[in-house]
Each structure stands twice: as structure tokens, then as C-alpha cells.
Design a protein that fits this description.
By secondary structure, the protein is α/β, with parallel strands linked by helices. 40% of the residues lie in helices and 16% in strands. The chain has 2 domains: 301 residues, Glycosidases (TIM Barrel); 87 residues, no CATH class. It has an 8-stranded parallel β-barrel, surrounded by 7 helices. A two-stranded antiparallel ribbon has the order 3-4. β12, α14 and β13 form a beta-alpha-beta unit. The protein is globular and about 60 Å long. The relative contact order is 0.13.
Length: 394
Amino acid sequence: MRHSVWAYPWDLHDLGCEDALAVIGQSGGTCISLATSYHAGRFLQPGNPKRRTYFPEDGTVYYKVDPARWASAEIAPKQAAIVEAEGDMLARTIKARDAGGAAVSCWTVCLHNSRLGMAHPAHALRDAFGDPAVYGLCPSSDAARDYVVGMVAEITHRYRPDRVELESPDFMGFDHGFHHEKDGLGLLPEDTFLLGLCFCDHCLARAGQAGIDGNAARKAVADHLTAAFARELPEAQFPEFPTTGLAAFDTVPALADYLRWRSEPVTSLIARIRAEAHPETEVLLIDAQATWQGGVDRAKAAAACDGLLYCAYFTPADKLGAELQTVREVLQPDATLIAGFQLFHPEVANADDLVARVCAASPYVDGMNFYNLGLVPRARLNWMHRAITTAATT
């Protein structure tokens, strides 16, 4: 099995690339999943000796961009200032790998990008009222698709990583996370989901080409939300959601048709990424329990690339085997399945808890990823080492 640790380039800068890779190896890791495209945030970093709290540059990439490649592109990546100022950590880890070190996976955020959403509002997600969600580009937009495909192609052909992990090549929901969010209504799950549906011009045109009446679906959603905004208190109109998934909306045929169509732009984008990435680099989709809400058809999406990295962050050990078995059953026989675990407390109670989860997952997966090098105390990486060692001998 290949075991990997998610890591940020700034942590490699501050720990020292060689020392960081050594820590990963001592923790049982044989791979580093290095962020090569990432969004804004505020990070508390007990595992980083210098930058204890860090605000990364919004919506940038952490590798050497070739400007000539993007000269005619409508949407292009921006190289993070830290790459020029402090070094190309992707190049450093690839060099270490080629000298016999850990494998390298490129953890690549695709469409979640507030900087690009604000700079290119015509390609941002738009709700049923036409309001933009600037934190996400739309997977139906040709320019957004070209950006993601080109970025992964550039990374894989220039650096030749062992793997690429695709984060957010789908539709982002309303509640994904932004600065100082306010909700005085008391949104129900159905309201939050419907607010996150995209009805931008790109989606309406693409749906229309497939024979789907996106305008009728948009009106149904706008009418539902308008009524929800007028009620004194929230009142569920689709009480079976999210338990029954998309079927909860089958009583509204136009909406039901649109919801089932939404997987097409996501699946076809993933297929394009796989087709244009270097053939020797494995491409995995980062998946989780409720990604269907973002338009992910798990079986189709996995078949469009090389498999899934399934994040089971919140699944207890006694339920994890059954959950991963369900995921494994929809994959092609030769597809890769990696389990993703976090080392956050109290979500993971202690070392025994992680050991139990890793042991439960081992029969179903081809490897594991652990989150995250700089975001947890160094001592907590010992949990990972113990879990990997115990699972290997059980």
C-alpha cells in the first residue's frame, strides 16, 4: 500500500524539504500529497515551527507556471509569490523521489477559487436568482474547463508526479465556506442544497443541448426559495431530503431532470483531465460521502479517471468497512481506492481511534492518505505510524 501525508508547500519551506520528507517517512508514509493549487484560508499550524498561523495567497498555484502556455487562455493560473521567493517545493520533492525518496502526488484544487471567481464572474457559479457564488468556477464553462485541464496537463507533463488528486472539479454547494457567512433564516438542508444549484448561462446552454429545460428547473428552485424566504419559520417542503438523495425532488419533474443531468459536466471534465494528463501519472478524484450533492456520479466519475481518494474523515471504525465496501462495489475492477483520514481532534479521539479506523479500512483499499503535516502537532503523526504498523500485522 502507498501511504501519503497531505502537506502544504509553506510547511516544506519552514521545516526544510528533506526534513519534512524524513518526518513523513518516519510516520509510515511512502508518499507526499503536496498542494499544487490551493484556495484562501486561515491555518493554525502547530506542526510548523515558523508560521504558526498562516493566510495563504488566494487561488494560486505552487509550481513554476509557463506563461507561454497560457498566453491565449481566458482563465490562467497565478503562480504564488512564495514559489519565486522561497523555492519550488514540487520540483524539490520530485528530485528527491527520483533519487529514491517518497512518491509525489499533486493535491490539486480545481474550481474552488475565489480569486478567479471574482476576476471572471461570467464563469462563476450562479444561483436560481442569478447571483454569483464567486468562490467557485462552473464546470459547464468552457473557459473554466480549459483552465483546469490545462493546469493538470502542465503539472503532469512538466513534473511527472506519480499521482494527481483532484479536489473540487464539481459544483460547489452554498455552504462550502466563505468569509463571515450570515444566515438569519435558519436554512434547512433542502434550502441549502437548492441555493447551491448553478443556473449560469453555461449550465443552461449545456443542459439545453441535452434536451433538459434548465429554465423550468431554475424557476422551480427560485419559487421554492422565495416561499422559504417569506415564511416566519422554516418548514420543510421535501422532508425526505437528503435521506433519499435526488429522488426527494421527483415530484418536480423539471428539477429532477436537471439534477440528474448535473453529473454530465462533472464526469466529462474529469474524463478530459485524464485524457490530457501525462499517461504515466495516475489521476484520482477526491470523493466523500455526500459529493452527489455537487453533481458527482461516483461510478461514472471514477470510471472517467483512475479511481477515488475517498475521505472518510467522520466515519467511526464500526461503520467504515461497510462504507468503503459500498464505494468499492461501484468501481471498475482495476480502479484505485485510497482512504483519506484526518488527524484532527476531537474528530479522531486518540491513537486507538485512528488505529481502529485504519484497520477497518485496510481490507478495502489500496492505500491511505493522512491530513495534514503542518496542521497537527508532530506527536500526532505517531498515531499514523502506529495505525499503519498495526494494520500491516493484523
